[in-house]
Write a structure and sequence with these properties.
Number of helices of chain B: 1
Strand order of the largest sheet of chain B: 1-2-3-4
Number of domains of chain A: 1
Largest sheet of chain A: 2 strands, antiparallel
CATH architecture of one domain in chain B: Beta Barrel
Order of helices and strands of chain A: HHHHHHHHEEEEHHHEEH
Oligomer: heterodimer
Distance between the termini of chain B: 38 Å
Distance between the termini of chain A: 60 Å
Number of strands of chain A: 6
Strand content of chain A: under 5%
Helix content of chain B: under 10%
Number of strands of chain B: 32
Radius of gyration of chain A: 24 Å
CATH class of one domain in chain B: Mainly Beta
Amino acid sequence: MWETIIVQPFTNLLLIITMLVKNFGLAIILFTILIKLLTYPLTARQLKSTQAMQDLQNDPAYKKMQAKYKDNKEKLAEEQMKIYKDKGISPFGSCLPTIIQFPIIIGLYQAIIRVMAATPLELVKLERIVYPFLDVNKILPIQNRFLWMDLGQPERLFINGIGIPVLAILVTITTLIQSRIMQPPSQGNDQAASMSNSMTMMMPLMMGWMAFQFSAGLALYFLISNLTTMVQYVAMGRADWSRIFPWMESKEADSTQKVIIETAPDDDDDEEEEETPVKIAKPSARSAVKRQRPKMKR
Amino acid sequence: MSKRTIRILILLVIGAIVLTGCAAGVRAESTPGVTVVDEAVYIAYLSKLYKLDRATGALLSSFPEGRSSVVMYAPPAVSEGGVYFGDLANEFHKVNDSNLNEILWTFDGARGWYQARAGVDGGLVIIPSSDRNVYALEKTTGELIWSYQGEFAFVAEPLIIADKVVVSAQDFHVVVLDLATGEELYRVETKGAVTSSPLYDPQSGNLFVGSFGKEMTSFNLETGEVNWVFGEGRGLATIWATPILVGDQLIFNDKSGKIVSLDPETGQELWTIEAGGTTIAGLAAIDEGGFVVAREDGNIQAYKLDRTSSWTGTVPGNVYTAPIVQGEQIFIPVINADSILYTFNVSGQAGWSFTPSN
């Protein structure tokens, strides 16, 4: 089932691209970008939902409402749902696109592994899933050579007899940059911030290690995937470059003011004179940034 | 560090391990590499090289002594007291046949895996590597004499015939090299990748080789001229294995289970058996009057040359490499089963099997 629906079509698509461009390395790059573009609406939706949730979490009125109903879970949930509904936020809006993307990413990853078929047995298994309209005897095996790399082997650039893992280094750096520019702003929660920082440090090392150990084809996929994700973030205006280049303007300060909850209604609250529905007015991220951008300190 | 952070880190590590297991790294999937020489059977599989007693299947010795993460699949070559084999850590060793753990030399000049048996003849060891090179090493010292670079990984055993080396290439060619220098003498074009060694007939001086191009090609070793090509319009599937010569017939199988007999001189079809079932492994001659074929699903069939079935048997697991016949014994390497090697006698009675201890 998994093979037929995900891995086989992806593998054949990758083979078709390879046949068209006559270069497996280039095919991996194009294939990764293509899949990233196809899943872009999901990524954008996920980012939008995540940002909206973050904005809401940072809103003082929302926090006040949470504090007010901290002993009344039922009421708290009711109020939260009301706000979500009014704002059009789905609490699962950031999870669902991730869940949908996950099999696509795994399928893409497995397709690359299949096509690289490094042993005769792996070649047998690849031949088995090639669609009949592709002339298998003309396309197999795939030429794994790309630039200085053998895409079926762990990548090393040999200079004076020393093997330098260029791709592993690039994967580590791009994962670090990607993690930093995508890191959500700190919400004053020490534990969350600590966890976030640990992740930001661990992920690049883990990805770098995998790129070092895995065949170059997969390391190339990691690299292109990182770069494409970064480009998508930049295109959506979500990248916070101040986390890489401290002299640049930070978006962190802006993120706390994007959602305005005028009042949090409370039947039991004496301070609130009248019951008013929750109103949320959120300016667009771009306009909020423009209006509230802090001045650079010199 | 909070408990939650630790949990996430553990999850990340587990994720990395799972992904590593899925990847085409050094844990590439392949089949046991088996060689039978005199009274010993050698098997390279996963992290061990085993030497067994041929009569009983008893383990005589193994390499390395302790645990190892280095994987090896290439069948070892055995010659004059030395055992030659390579691994997926890009190292090729010569060890003492009497004591497998006595390494005589190691060649680490390749940048790719060793997946096929080396050719050993005279003073040279000819090694095909996945780094697109064929290496020639001096037999006693392991010193590199020459290397030949191709376009794809070399995954078939090279044949050393007199002063020539015949190498199957995946770039739709069979390449013939000068044994002394590694210089390319000529190449014979095929219609697809060649992943199996050619068969050499010393009487006629001809070679026979099958390819993914769904054809069998015969060419002369001395001249390089193609004698005939069989397969056009015959509905063959890809050919993964070396043909055999039995009596005056050249017999080969394709992936679809079709077994074809040809006149080796002319390439004329003598008969065809539609045996069915996926057959990656090749055939093995069991005597002058028959042969055995092992299907992927573990079904073993023995035939006489008149196409009648002699006997059938089964082994658990899957078979991807040709059976080996030595004297009265048939050796069948398998994967996806408890044991990695099963034996039969030439009458079809099951013998011992070998299960590596963990």
